[in-house]
Design a protein that fits this description.
Layout: H1 19-32, H2 52-74, H3 92-144, H4 150-157, H5 176-188
Helix pairs in contact: 2-3, 3-4
Length: 189
Amino acid sequence: MGSLFRSEEMTLCQLFLQSEAAYACVSELGELGLVQFRDLNPDVNAFQRKFVNEVRRCDEMERKLRYLEKEIRRDGIPMLEIPGEVPEAPQPREMIDLEATFEKLENELREVNQNAEALKRNYLELTELKHILRKTQVFFDEHEGGANTTESMTRALISDDPNRHMGQVQLGFRDKQESLEFLPWLVEL
């Protein structure tokens, strides 16, 4: 494989290719790495060129691949990486299949991420409600057992223990009446 250093001997050539064969010829020349292309129409706006739509499609596919790679790396899934090997350019009909596959994978992954977030949110809400119901059950059990003092009722709902771990809800109310008014509202959610 040659190089494109300035000291390398070069020859200026002009190729005329049929439009049907242009993609295959340019991809083969590009994979060799021995060719440098010059723009013969520098005054033409980038949006007026014939290949703009193909470049946009490639950019969109690259964006989807970067997103998929980021999600794979975030989840710690090992990926096969072959250093130094550049895959061949796919044929145009293969590009359509790749584009559809990338679109499908991206949509599925976004849906999975949204569902995982919703499940986590629901789990946390249900865990909170479970702990609220446990605290109210303890409160009512003590109340029915004859411990009728304000102090014992408050102690059942509010714990001052600083060593409490996650999984137990500590309500920040000082008055038992406020606590009891607040609990039915939480349970209705």
